[in-house]
Design brief:
4-stranded antiparallel beta sheet, 11 helices, alpha+beta, 5-stranded mixed beta sheet
């Protein structure tokens, strides 16, 4: 309890701010979630640095009153929420991102065809590995190509019919013969799909897309000296399950990367998640784009002595990439 109170005291020293749209998109696409009816965003963490970042995004943060088991042992759980007008605005942004993105893509078949060609071109260049399978063995090569074919099918289906999921069972636009229509009420899916469709459909500034990806990696990725990756888990739906899986996420991220020229080198697929690996030099550009904002968090972590905090450790590595860039 004392450790939790100390963590809360430290994070509350961070100045409260307001989230930029791409910061909220990145949070919801990774660690955050929302209640559609209550119009409230929520998140939790065991990182004091990340909790401080939540405050910077305008969220109310507090010690949850219990600890959570991590790789580094028991750590106090810190919970954050965004409610009121700002919470409603964030949830409405998800709704608008999903609906407007679909409307934009539906109205431009030529654009969808261009996106498809770009995405399939990038997919053909990406190395695909499966965890637990020898990549150089015949079985490894066969399974990698099977995974590539699954991603290709999802890319083509989405950009042709605006459908996702195994067998195309989920339609993003209500239509005859559509078994499920994805709306913002399907929180576990919409919070991830909406930001990606938004950036795929809209001609956003490259700088903003880089910042979105940099924050997503900060929340849910790995930053090592010669390796930068974003982790994608399965959709964590407990209610209102839809037949969407990790291959749909991979397809959308690859379409986004192809549209904006993001240098993706490899995809590694495991039983419960997948990782997208970026070219280290390109990752340095992404981190540099966001460093003017992230540098305050690095300084805050340094001033508060958060050297064992896993998010601060990630920031240390990000800073090295920025300095090299």
């Amino acid at each position: 309890k004392e450790e939790g109170q100390n963590a809360a005291e430290i994070m509350n020293r961070a100045e409260k701010g307001k989230a930029e749209p791409y910061q909220m998109w990145a949070l919801l696409a990774t660690d955050g979630s929302y209640y559609a009816e209550e119009e409230r965003v929520k998140a939790s963490t065991t990182s004091v640095a990340q909790a401080a970042l939540y405050r910077r995004l305008g969220m109310e943060v507090h010690y949850a009153g219990y600890a959570s088991l991590t790789e580094d042992g028991l750590k106090p759980k810190l919970e954050a929420h965004l409610s009121g007008e700002e919470g409603a605005e964030a949830v409405k942004t998800i709704k608008a991102g999903l609906e407007n993105g679909v409307r934009t893509l539906l109205g431009d078949p030529e654009r969808r065809e261009e996106l498809k060609e770009k995405a399939l071109g990038l997919l053909s260049l990406i190395e695909i590995r499966l965890i637990g399978v020898d990549k150089d063995a015949e079985e490894g090569r066969r399974k990698a190509e099977e995974a590539r074919e699954k991603i290709r099918e999802r890319i083509e289906r989405f950009l042709k019919d605006l459908r996702l999921g195994e067998g195309g069972a989920v339609c993003l636009q209500s239509a005859e013969g559509c078994e499920h229509v994805l709306t913002y009420e399907y929180e576990a899916y919409a919070r991830i799909v909406a930001p990606l469709i938004h950036y795929i459909a809209e001609d956003a500034p490259l700088d903003e897309v880089m910042k979105f990806l940099a924050y997503a990696i900060l929340y849910d990725g790995y930053v090592l000296p010669k390796e930068v990756s974003l982790t994608l888990g399965h959709f964590g739906a407990r209610k209102k399950r839809l037949p969407l899986d990790i291959y749909d996420k991979l397809a959308l991220y690859i379409i986004l990367a192809a549209e904006y020229g993001v240098d993706v080198r490899m995809v590694r697929i495991g039983g419960s998640d997948a990782e997208i690996f970026f070219d280290p030099e390109y990752a340095a550009k992404m981190f540099a784009a966001a460093w003017a904002e992230l540098s305050w968090l690095w300084r805050f972590g340094k001033e508060q002595g958060l050297f064992a905090d896993h998010v601060f450790e990630k920031l240390q590595e990000i800073r090295k990439y920025v300095e090299a860039h």
